[in-house]
Each structure stands twice: as structure tokens, then as C-alpha cells.
Design a protein that fits this description.
single chain; mainly alpha; elongated
């Protein structure tokens, strides 16, 4: 396999993975606000363990399923930074840093989601079976677990910001890639706003951010597959 073939394969794998990641991320949003909300979940409950835990106990499989879907979208995101690096210059030190940050962001995000998935069943069961006088302890533990998961997801977002921002700065200077670069920089700015505001409950733009990131991943996927086809055509024409 030549260097050109390997480059095309990386773009093709990254493109397909980005498309799947974007679709699954959109599925996560639809699952939350469509399916789970139709079962009685609300945004207010997410900040009130005394109301959330009994609901999770009644809908444990559905709630844990949300986090597994979220993990799947991050799992498919893993090869995308390497695929995009083939376009922006994978040998450059700054791009190697961006690629590592993107991969690390996906891994950290999966860990955060798994903390929520692992702790929800036990805590929700305890919230309805333990003595009423001890339930505040369960609610506190739930808040701690939820906060840990949230902050790991925010760290994941920051690492993804490094990847999208650094590669976006390169793409805006490349012919045919400027629009994607602008989109990545816009997503970077929105992510930074969410990361700063979310811990203090200043703004709740997380659902909007998820939608924007999903669209950016889809855009990256289509762009990488298009570039892979062009590279293949150029190699055949030589």
C-alpha cells in the first residue's frame, strides 16, 4: 500500500465514521427529547435528584440506554480526527496535537457517560427502597455522580474544541474547505460558551450544542468522503 492509498483510506474511514457519529448524536437528541420526555422526563428533573431518581427507577433501561447511545456516537468519533488530519497536514506538530486532543475528548466523554450509566440503576433503586430519613444521602450521592459525569463531559467538550478549533483555523485558509473551517470555529465558540456557563447554570445551551456538533460531524464526514473520491480519481489519472 502506498502513502497515497493510506491517506485515502484514512479519509474514507474517518468520513464514514463521522457520518455515523453525527447520525447517532442526532439520535441521542431525538431519543432524549422525544422518547424520554414522552415518558415523563423533564429538564427540571435533571437538577432535582429527589424527583429524577424515582423516575429513573421506573425507567432504568430507557435511561441507561441514553448513555449507551451517547457512547456509541463518541466511539465512532475516534477515527475522525485522524481522517481530518490527512487534509490539514498530519505531520505538523499543531495538527498532531489537535488529533490527540480530539481522540482524548472522545475517550473522556465515554468515561463520563459510563459513570452516569453505571451509577443510575443502584442510586435510583436506593432512592425508593432505603429509609426515608436516609434518602437525602442518596440524593447527594446522585448529585456527586451526576456532577462528575457532567464535568468529564465538559472536559471532553474542551478537548474536542482544541481539535475543531485548531483544524478549523487551517481549513479556513484552504480552497474548498473554508466553509467547513468557519463552521468548526463557530462550533468551537458555542462549545466554549456552554463549558463556561453550564457549571454555573447561567445558560442551558447543551441541547443546541449537541445539534450543532452533530451537523458539523456530518459535514466533516461528507467532506472527507468527497476528498477521498477526488484523491482516488487523481491517483487513477496519473
Amino acid at each position: 500500500m502506498t502513502v497515497g492509498d493510506e491517506r485515502v483510506d484514512m479519509m474514507r474511514v474517518g468520513g464514514r465514521a463521522a457520518l455515523i457519529s453525527g447520525v447517532v448524536f442526532l439520535t441521542t437528541i431525538a431519543y432524549t427529547f422525544g422518547f424520554l420526555f414522552s415518558m415523563g422526563l423533564s429538564t427540571d428533573m435533571l437538577n432535582e435528584p429527589n424527583h429524577l431518581m424515582p423516575w429513573v427507577h421506573d425507567h432504568t433501561i430507557a435511561f441507561v440506554g441514553l448513555w449507551w447511545i451517547f457512547v456509541v456516537h463518541l466511539l465512532f468519533l475516534l477515527p475522525v480526527p485522524a481522517g481530518l488530519a490527512m487534509v490539514v497536514g498530519h505531520r505538523r506538530a499543531i495538527i498532531r496535537t489537535a488529533t490527540a486532543a480530539g481522540i482524548a475528548g472522545a475517550v473522556v466523554g465515554m468515561i463520563g457517560a459510563m459513570i452516569n450509566a453505571a451509577t443510575a440503576p443502584a442510586l435510583s433503586a436506593a432512592s425508593v427502597t432505603i429509609a426515608e430519613a436516609l434518602r437525602p444521602n442518596v440524593w447527594l450521592t446522585s448529585e456527586l455522580a451526576g456532577s462528575l459525569g457532567l464535568h468529564l463531559r465538559l472536559l471532553s467538550d474542551l478537548l474536542v474544541v482544541v481539535w475543531l478549533g485548531l483544524t478549523g483555523l487551517t481549513l479556513v485558509r484552504m480552497s474548498g474547505w473554508k466553509a467547513l473551517g468557519v463552521a468548526q470555529l463557530a462550533a468551537t465558540a458555542l462549545t466554549l460558551v456552554v463549558v463556561v456557563a453550564k457549571p454555573f447554570d447561567w445558560l442551558d445551551l447543551e441541547p443546541s450544542l449537541g445539534f450543532v456538533l452533530a451537523l458539523v460531524y456530518l459535514w466533516i464526514g461528507f467532506s472527507l468522503l468527497r476528498e477521498a473520491r477526488r484523491e482516488t480519481a487523481r491517483m487513477i489519472g496519473r
